[in-house]
Write a sequence for this structure.
């Protein structure tokens, strides 16, 4: 489309008749219209006609400006060359072939879904290979086992500098070191290992309240269990606690249900497995120890007698342990409100983070090394965290 082909929308009025000048008494002249404008024409009409003429002249001047023409042409080009507008201009035979390509694309999406199902099977297979290492990790953390000298040997990046400094000072301070070693405390295992990870990771620390901290110090291990072969795709997070004063459960669980198939209504949106729902568990709190609720007192006035009494009631309380009582994804076609959708999406993201990052690389989140690596990477939304 060319600018020259465009019609302006400026208003047009019938051309005015020629205006002539007639002499009158004295040295002054006055412009008078010929017979086309009789004495009954109001001055406003003459002024409007004059303004319209000026507007047309201004429009002609604008349309002759090369910069204006270039800007208009660029705008027209951008409108006329959108993908959808281009597709609409194609012949029916070409559109028919495009539809065939879309059918092929849907079949590709279904093959991709099968690929991810096999990936899930591989994850299950290799999880079994990782588990003996994770079991030993738990033993070292809890103090049930002590690593050998070979197992505890680690070469740090600053090892050479540390060795040189140590050699210089070794002879002078050896006696002092021996005395200090004798007095140095030797706690069992690695105290507050998992609680320290919760504090280090912002995504988790935001959920932890001050009254959650004493409970999380009893956390001894976190495991990931994958669904059995032939079962719907899912994974379970297991939080293992030592005996404590807060609840009787030794294990708290959170199950995340997944789907790896294209949506029938929108198959082209498929990008891999996604978490679609989750289930928590019941926490058997000991009396007066439930941190997920708080007791408030409220005054209540009797309508008939006018007497006032004080009643107590329990209301929800912010706590990490609400993690085990998640919102349910709507399965009846009813949409959740915006806050609920955000809460559910955040829950899915946290579950994915435990599975993909925290559990496999726990020691690096304890030391903070993994957090530094994460900070150096561009943030991305994993496909498995999408909500339907």
């Amino acid at each position: 489309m060319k600018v020259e082909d465009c019609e302006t929308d400026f208003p047009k009025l019938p051309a005015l008749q020629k205006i002539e000048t007639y002499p009158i008494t004295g040295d002054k002249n006055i412009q008078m219209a010929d017979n086309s404008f009789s004495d009954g024409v109001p001055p406003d009409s003459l002024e409007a006609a004059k303004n319209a003429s000026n507007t047309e002249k201004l429009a002609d001047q604008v349309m002759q400006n090369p910069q204006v023409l270039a800007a208009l042409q660029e705008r027209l080009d951008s409108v006329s060359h959108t993908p959808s507008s281009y597709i609409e201009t194609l012949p029916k035979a070409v559109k028919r072939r495009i539809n065939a390509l879309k059918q092929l694309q849907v079949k590709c999406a279904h093959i991709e879904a099968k690929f991810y199902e096999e990936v899930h099977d591989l994850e299950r297979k290799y999880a079994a290979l990782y588990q003996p290492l994770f079991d030993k990790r738990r033993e070292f953390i809890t103090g049930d086992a002590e690593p050998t000298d070979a197992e505890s040997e680690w070469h740090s990046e600053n090892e050479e500098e540390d060795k040189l400094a140590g050699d210089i000072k070794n002879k002078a301070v050896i006696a002092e070191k021996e005395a200090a070693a004798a007095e140095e405390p030797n706690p069992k295992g690695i105290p507050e290992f998992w609680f320290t990870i919760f504090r280090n990771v912002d995504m988790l620390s935001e959920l932890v309240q001050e009254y959650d901290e004493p409970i999380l110090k009893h956390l001894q291990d976190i495991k990931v269990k994958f669904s059995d072969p032939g079962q719907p795709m899912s994974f379970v997070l297991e939080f293992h606690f030592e005996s404590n004063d807060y609840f009787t459960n030794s294990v708290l669980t959170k199950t995340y249900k997944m789907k790896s198939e294209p949506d029938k209504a929108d198959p082209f949106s498929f990008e891999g497995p996604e978490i679609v729902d989750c289930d928590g568990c019941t926490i058997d709190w000991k009396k007066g120890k439930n941190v997920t609720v708080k007791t408030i007192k409220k005054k209540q006035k009797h309508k008939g007698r006018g007497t006032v009494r004080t009643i107590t009631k329990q209301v929800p309380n912010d706590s990490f342990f609400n993690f085990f009582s998640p919102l349910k994804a709507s399965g009846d076609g009813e949409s959740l409100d915006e806050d609920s959708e955000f809460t559910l999406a955040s829950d899915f993201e946290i579950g994915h983070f435990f599975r993909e990052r925290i559990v496999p690389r726990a020691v690096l989140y304890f030391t903070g090394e993994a957090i530094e690596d994460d900070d150096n990477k561009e943030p991305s939304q994993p496909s498995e965290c999408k909500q339907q």
